[in-house]
């Protein structure tokens, strides 16, 4: 066996070890959600309960603090924000990557530098602006800012830069304008990158806790992260119920990743072709 094969096996084993370390807390969380209160602190850990107790999951979905409204609110915020973010990021990235204008690169660097600004710094200006616009304590306070993502523009620009300029030049010769080239030629080629951005952005908005905490007051507007926090505060000794609620909160993320992992790999690979 040569050195390359040995190195590959060692690397695989190391990655497998860290993968197991990362997944153990999730397995414990799911296992605990089906246990009785007496089994939570049993040592050594009993990974598979003697009897699966579904009452905690029933409580999460049908009790007075049902997660159904939180799920609907999170879906509304995450889906609308993601659609807007993907659309606007693609348009902006096309302009930065394919349209020549004076100061383009300087403007992009200034735009990119905004990623270094901590989001917490913007909470007070956002609060003042949202209150003035009348959207404070509404879902629009989360959706509208969520449609603008610097990372999304950067990621899509990297992909558009990798598309040969000869394709655009041939379309220009045939009489096509920028919008037609963007919608008919460039955008269909960018499906993996678009899907990757959509998955990453959806995950971000689904798990967004800080913005929801600052800009939402009414409980009927709460998203899943706030709903989970509210559930924990009301049931601070119900560890099984907390784990059942946490399990309910990560289900969409698991489904999104399982359905889109192929596009994530393709999109990241294609976006890293050219810097």
TrEMBL record:
Origin organism lineage: Bacteria, Bacillati, Bacillota, Bacilli, Bacillales
Signal peptide: none
Source species: Paenibacillus rhizoplanae
SUPFAM superfamilies from the UniProt entry: MetI-like
Xref: Gene3D superfamilies: MetI-like
Protein's UniProt name: Carbohydrate ABC transporter permease
InterPro entries hit by this protein: MetI-like (IPR000515), MetI-like_sf (IPR035906)
Annotated ranges, domain ABC transmembrane type-1: 71-260
Keywords, ordered alphabetically: Cell membrane, Membrane, Transmembrane, Transmembrane helix, Transport
Key word DNA-binding present: no
Main localization category: membrane
UniProt family annotation: Belongs to the binding-protein-dependent transport system permease family.
Membrane protein topology class: Multi-pass membrane protein
Domain of life: Bacteria
Compartments it resides in: Cell membrane
TM regions (residue ranges): 12-30, 77-96, 108-128, 140-160, 181-200, 241-260
């Amino acid at each position: 066996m040569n050195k390359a094969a040995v190195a590959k096996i060692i690397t695989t084993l190391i990655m497998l070890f860290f993968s197991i370390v990362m997944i153990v807390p999730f397995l414990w969380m799911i296992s605990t959600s089906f246990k009785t209160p007496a089994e939570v602190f049993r040592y050594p850990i009993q990974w598979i309960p003697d009897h699966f107790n579904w009452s905690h999951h029933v409580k999460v979905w049908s009790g007075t603090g049902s997660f159904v409204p939180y799920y609907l609110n999170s879906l509304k915020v995450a889906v609308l924000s993601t659609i807007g973010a993907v659309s606007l990021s693609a348009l902006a990235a096309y302009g930065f990557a394919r349209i020549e204008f004076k100061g383009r690169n300087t403007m992009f660097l200034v735009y990119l530098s905004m990623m270094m600004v901590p989001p917490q710094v913007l909470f007070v200006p956002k609060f003042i602006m949202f209150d003035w616009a009348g959207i404070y304590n509404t879902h629009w306070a989360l959706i509208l800012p969520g449609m603008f993502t610097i990372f999304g523009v950067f990621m899509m620009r990297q992909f558009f830069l990798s598309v040969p300029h000869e394709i655009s030049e041939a379309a220009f010769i045939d009489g096509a304008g920028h919008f037609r080239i963007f919608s008919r030629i460039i955008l269909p080629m960018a499906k993996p990158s678009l899907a990757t951005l959509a998955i990453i952005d959806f995950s971000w908005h689904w798990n967004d806790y800080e913005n929801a905490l600052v800009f939402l007051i009414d409980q009927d507007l709460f998203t899943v992260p706030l709903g989970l926090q509210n559930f924990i505060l009301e049931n601070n000794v119900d560890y099984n119920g907390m784990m059942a609620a946490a399990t309910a909160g990560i289900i969409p993320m698991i489904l999104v990743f399982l359905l889109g992992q192929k596009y994530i790999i393709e999109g990241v690979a294609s976006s890293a072709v050219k810097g």
